[in-house]
Amino acid sequence: MPDENQNLDYQKLIKDQPWIVQQNQACIVSPDSDGLLCGLFMSNYLNWEISGFYDGKILVIKKNIKPSTCVYLDIEIFRKEVKSVGHHMILYNKKCLPTNWTNLKNCISANNLRGFDMKNNFPAKYPLGTIHLLFAIIGQIEKINLPIDSLCPLLYTDGTFKNLFNYPDNCLDWLDFLGAKIDKTSLNDLFYSEHYTISRLMIALNNLFFELKKINNGKRGGDKIKISDKNGNLINFDGSQFDQETQEKAKLFLTLLEQKTGWKYLKTNWHWELFDIYRFQKGIIKPSQGRYNDLMSKNPLSLAMTSGNTLEYTLDKENIF
């Protein structure tokens, strides 16, 4: 287990996981604001192709691409051969590692970087988004330009702004671990910006909320793409492609992010049609050592402990991976 008090050694991380800085890779993203920001960012800086979306119940992926060959962004995939990046709490007890824990050897998971687990470290779990972790890593190989307007969506995603005010001690601890105090780094520009007073941030967030509601006909939800309902059924599709309304809303959101961040929505890098569609079995249990051990013996495809009472998981019953 790594030392939770040491700063992140980016050079070692990149040496261990060189794929994270390689150009021209196919990726699958989570269909929410964090995943979409990750896709926009990686397509701009490393020319990655967004080949599909995965929400824990359904995977839609560009036809004729093997799911295990893609990089998964904003989702930890529990398979040795699969590369992934995420920020969820996925280990129950570091003193009782599952026998198949090496399934994560190609996974960059924020909490695992510090050896954080549910039993001992849940209040200190990673409080930011996957985009901030990617940002910090890619910022080691090239300067990430951040227009002032980009700060708002980057602080909005995954409720980061709420965590900054609700858990400032934890956020500052993680920012220190990630090296955000170092001048002229991308994370320093974002989190230690002198531009945003509290009032300016409130006004900017309010304006962003207004823009998001415009995308979704006056309702919340303009910052995500729904690909399944609560029962795991495919929705918002017309045959093997997203229906027209869903495509238009997603593109409006990506265009809004482009305007704010300066990261281009590169149409040729994003796929909205001609998908293969795979379904999985999703479940929820209350975390405990026994239930966790039982789950891990079933070799879940992905999992996340989202609260002290909730462990969400996905099983690949059809051996798609």
Order of helices and strands: HEHEEEEEHHHHHHHHEEHEEHEE
Structural class: alpha/beta
Let me know the number of strands.
12
- Report the sheet-strand fraction: 15-25%
* Tally of individual helices: 12
Lateral arrangement of strands in the main beta sheet: 6-5-4-1-2-3-9
**Gap between N and C termini:** 27 Å
Low-confidence stretches: none
Number of domains: 1
Using only C-alpha atoms, the radius of gyration works out to 19 Å
What helical percentage do the residues reach?
A: 25-40%
Mean pLDDT: 95
Largest sheet: 7 strands, mixed
Overall morphology: globular
Brief descriptors of the model:
single chain, 321 residues, alpha/beta, 7-stranded mixed β-sheet, 3-stranded antiparallel β-sheet, 12 helices
Describe the structure.
It is a single chain. By secondary structure, this protein is α/β, with parallel strands linked by helices. The protein has one domain. The protein is built from twelve helices and twelve strands. It has a seven-stranded mixed beta sheet. It has a three-stranded antiparallel beta sheet with strand order 10-12-11, with no helix packed on it. Helix 2 (33-45) runs parallel beside helix 5 and helix 7 packs across helix 8 (168-177). The longest helix is centred in the middle third of the chain and has 18 residues, at 198-215. It is globular and about 50 Å long. It starts with 9 loop residues before the first helix and ends in a 6-residue tail after the last strand.
